[in-house]
Amino acid sequence: MIDILAFGAHPDDVELGCAGTIAMSVAQGKSVVIVDLTQGELGTRGTADLRRQEAEKAAALLKVKQRENLAFKDGFFANDSAHQLKVIQKIREYKPEIVLCNALKDRHIDHGKANQLVNDACFLSGLAKIETSDAAGQMQQAWRPKLVLEYIQWDDIIPNIVVDITGYLDNKMEAVKAYSSQFFDPNSEEDHTPISSENFLDSVEYRARNFGRLIGTEAGEGFTSRQLLSVDSLDTLIR
Fold this sequence. Notes:
By secondary structure, the protein is an alpha/beta fold. It has a single domain, classed as Rossmann fold. Helices cover 36% and strands 15% of the residues. The protein is built from six helices and seven strands. The chain has a seven-stranded mixed beta sheet, with helices on both faces. Helix 2 (48-62) links the parallel strand 2 and strand 3 (66-72). Helix 1 (13-27) packs across helix 5. The longest helix is centred in the C-terminal third of the chain and has 18 residues, at 198-215. The chain is globular, with a radius of gyration of 17 Å. The chain starts with a strand and ends in a 15-residue tail after the last strand.
């Protein structure tokens, strides 16, 4: 059983959306696992193998317990039973209290698809009559996370909650920059993409700082939620 299971459609999605929250959670003693759905093999820059190496570097920087890749087909995976069952297997294997996933809608079509796939799998994972087995062939028990939060990526989405990542913004940016094939590199001779500009890299940091400004701290990461968020004491809302 772990505390947080973070899903991303591609290697680097988790870093862009919630690396600060992950770094902070690990520092607080929480166990975190990252599962990438695809290898990002359709990306204009880099290769699947290079992105795997970059993902391993980012995972080491964030000090997560483990990182896996389900090797779904980049650009063409679907929210169907075959893909749902593979995600359910991971949810039941790790038994997370909290799941983090891609944005509800975004520029890249895989992000919205991943959001729906993970949300549906989190619900279905709690149904005992859906049978799955682990790598050793042992039947898995039903498990439903208590909370699913959707991080923000390209689009400007109004969050339902902002997590204060003061002290962890540098960790976030270091993990993002581990993907040197994807983001700004003045010496790169590869084709330009919407995320390879210096402006995009700056915007990742600016968004975190702006969320921090809005909540009165150094930096923050925003999330949306399909379920009502609750607290058991009003004091929890006081900074």
